[in-house]
Write a structure and sequence with these properties.
GO terms for molecular function: phosphorelay sensor kinase activity. Its EC number is 2.7.13.3. This is histidine kinase. The protein has 347 residues and is an alpha+beta fold. It has two domains: 1-200, no CATH class; 201-347, Histidine kinase-like ATPase, C-terminal domain (Heat Shock Protein 90). 61% of the residues lie in helices and 11% in strands. A five-stranded mixed beta sheet has the order 2-4-5-7-6. Strands 1-3 form a two-stranded antiparallel ribbon.
Length: 347
């Protein structure tokens, strides 16, 4: 088994350090709660001292009828308990928001372990242990998947060479089609494994116009025509390899199913919109979201062109890693628009 099929070493550790640097403890919330707790404790101590003094100089029966020595400490204890409950609830909500935000971006959520009370810190540590274990197991499975897929290429190549020796042309063609489909599945499995590693690529400032121009030139050198409309005009903070892979998947899909393929570039406020447009058959409205599922192929396009059904699934995952959005929309004039939207941040 070839262990070099994919370079995903230290993937889990890199993701943990990346997210650990991104998450920060809620210092404002902690200081606010501590500011409220101090006067509550002072008032509670004063109330207890007052109750002790009052019971020393005044008969307990008289004070009990008045109720003052008991009511004030009880109210302060209740206020302290309520404040503690609110504090724990606020920290749990903040942890939940951190985890959902990180997981929504396609990364492994890592929570700061020094925020809030001891119980919250222990919960964060337990959560991080689970995340670390999951990331390690995922990296191991990716190595296995990549190795199996890589090693399958060799027997497939031998089978393709031997199938050419078959004298019956119809049988030979059928074998060639089956082998081509198997090769696509193998390549798709490798793409899935590599996509998981590309999702951990760090963000950095890149010259978007140069990246897009080089991409279009590569298609032109390969004899494929893809028009480029518009320009960014400024550096973009993103993951360049992930961005290129997303655009390649979208453009390849457009070239596979349609013609007159264009890459439209426009800047809208604080967003960069990259739209790949074609004049193909489009996708039924009910399946515009389903096609993002791995291995899914729309019935109306599956028969017209080959494919593994992984291109859009990979593109969606990498888009989330770049904090962006990927949507499909049928064009009014016919064809499909694959719209990639990325946030623009100051460089």
């Amino acid at each position: 088994m070839n262990a070099h099929a994919i370079d995903s070493s230290n993937t889990s550790n890199a993701s943990l350090h990346t997210n650990a640097g991104r998450a920060s403890p809620p210092e404002g919330a902690r200081q606010s709660f501590e500011a409220w707790l101090r006067p509550i404790w002072v008032l509670l101590a004063a109330a207890c001292a007052y109750a002790s003094y009052a019971t020393h100089d005044v008969p307990w029966a008289v004070l009990a009828r008045a109720g003052l020595p008991l009511v004030l400490p009880a109210m302060l204890v209740a206020a302290l308990a309520a404040l503690k409950f609110v504090e724990l609830h606020a920290y749990v909500q903040r942890m939940e928001a951190m985890a959902e935000r990180s997981l929504g971006e396609g990364a492994d959520a890592v929570l700061p372990e020094d925020m809030g009370p001891a119980a919250i810190a222990r919960l964060a540590r337990a959560f991080n242990v689970c995340v670390h274990h999951r990331a390690r197991r995922q990296a191991e499975l990716l190595h296995v998947l990549a190795a199996y897929a890589h090693d399958l290429r060799t027997p497939l190549t031998r089978m393709a060479m031997r199938s050419e020796l078959v004298e019956d042309a119809s049988v030979r063609d059928a074998l060639a089609r089956d082998l081509a489909e198997m090769t696509e599945l193998v390549d798709g499995s490798l793409s899935c494994a590599r996509m998981q590693c590309s999702a951990q690529e760090p963000m950095r400032s890149v010259d978007a116009d140069s990246l897009l121009g080089a991409l279009i030139d590569d298609y032109r050198d390969a004899g494929r025509t893809v028009e480029l409309e518009g320009r960014v005009g400024r550096p973009v903070v993103t993951c360049p390899h992930a961005l290129r892979r997303v655009l390649v998947n979208l453009i390849d899909n457009a070239l596979r199913y349609g013609v007159d393929v264009r890459l439209s570039v426009r800047v809208e406020a604080q967003r960069l919109v990259l739209a790949v447009l074609d004049s193909g058959p489009g996708i039924a409205p009910a399946r515009l979201e389903a096609v993002f599922a791995a291995w899914y192929r729309a019935p109306e396009t599956a028969a017209s062109a080959s494919g593994s059904g992984l291109g859009l699934a990979i593109a969606r995952r990498l888009t989330l890693a770049m904090h962006g959005e990927l949507e499909l929309e049928n064009r009014r004039t016919g064809g499909l628009e694959a719209r990639l939207t990325l946030p623009l941040v100051a460089t």
